[in-house]
Amino acid sequence: MDLSTVYLGIKLRSPLVASASPLSEDIDNIQRLEDAGAAAVVMHSLFEEQLRLERFELNHHLTQGTESFPEALTYFPDSASFRVGTETYLDHIHKAKQKVNIPIIASLNGSSVGGWTNYAQEIQQAGADALELNIYYVPTDMELTSHEIEQTYIDILHAVKSVVTMPVAVKLSPYFTNMANMAKRLDDAGADALVLFNRFYQPDINLDLLDVEPNVLLSTPHSMRLPLRWIAILYGRIQADLAATSGIHGGEDALKMVMAGAKVTLLCSVLLRHGINHIRVIEQEMRQWMEKHEYESIQQMQGCMSQRSCPNPSAFERAQYMRSLATYKPEWSSIQDTSYYFG
Questions:
Q1: Does 333 map to a domain?
Q2: Which helix (H) or strand (E) segment is 273 a member of?
Q3: Rounded CA gap, 105 and 128, in Å?
Q4: What is the pLDDT of residue 82?
Q5: What CA–CA distance (Å, rounded) separates 250 from 257?
Q6: Omega before 197 cis (within 30°)?
Q7: Spatial contact of 245 and 197, defined as CB atoms under 8 Å apart
Q8: Phi/psi of residue 36, nearest 5 degrees
Q9: What CATH code is carried by the domain that includes residue 288?
């Protein structure tokens, strides 16, 4: 049974790829991911804010007291000559490439054009097989237009593609006025893949401390519905590969994404919950389903349930909205008289 797929121009043994997570911060874990069957690993992200902070702190310590007497400025080299923030990340990529045979995909997480090109070049030189641009952007400026926001994504992609030769994927959020148009624009700009979708950090309020605090929620299988829908809509309409992320917890989840049109399925929450070896379980579930339904390869089913190929294309659009509401019955309706609630 052939589970192989091609993503970012790289042939992978299966569609099961470890997504960016704390697991990849340890080389031993990356080796365990390979042993468990991960076809590739997306590294934890290098954050733009982290690099800015480290550069600011270095400059502060190098310049503190330098005006105390004329000769003080000659004590330290210019702060621009220091390479800050990226060294550990680049060394981690280099070591991972030496330890495993599966592709290593780096991840840059930021929101502005500045600095992306230098980091992307260094990541390529460190040996990464590809780069995922995780553009995490929550616009709060009321004067900023949708066109300006979208253009930022295009500019970042153009800047990175102009300085590297490795494949570049763009990880997106679903919050665009016209997701289909945005996908097309990124495809036209040279994106080798689109990763759907980024899950935004959602803060919470601590009522006891009266403070805003971090709140990281792992995905559930229900989270896969949104990327499933858009992958099915975009499949065959753009040249870029489509990668599914969020809500993939079992073999059937992965198969549904492939049938919608995904080249790979990115695993994160399920591995944090159940451990790295759960990749074996997901792969075995895929093989069992394929054997039962007489599929010989992943390519055989890829995109077979996309909008352009499935028996009911309107199911992915508004046409089925009222039908869904009309056919839904509350869970308690079968055991209680609904007239009590609605008069």
A1: no
A2: helix 269-274
A3: 6
A4: 37
A5: 11
A6: yes
A7: yes
A8: -80, -10
A9: 3.20.20.70
Segment 109-112 long-range contacts (CB within 8 Å, at least 24 positions apart):
109/45, 109/46, 109/47, 109/48, 109/134, 109/135, 109/136, 110/47, 110/48, 110/49, 110/134, 110/135, 110/136, 110/156, 111/48, 111/135, 111/136, 111/137, 111/152, 112/48, 112/152, 112/156
Q: Which residues of the chain have pLDDT under 50?
A: 53-84, 338-343
> Which residue from 63, 288, 258, 212 is spatially nearest to 244, judged by alpha carbons?
258
Q: How far apart are CA 30 and CA 14, in angstroms?
A: 17
d(CA 285, CA 283): 5
Domain that holds residue 106: 5-307
The domain tally of the chain equals 1
Question: Does the residue 324 lie in any domain?
Answer: no
Confidence (pTM): 0.83
Q: Could you tell me if 108 and 119 are in contact, meaning their C-beta atoms sit under 8 angstroms apart?
A: yes
What are the tokens at 32? 């365990």
Quick: pLDDT tens for 32-83.
Answer: 999 999 999 999 988 765 555 444 433 433 344 444 444 444 444 444 443 4
Q: Which two tokens stand for residue 38?
A: 């991960």
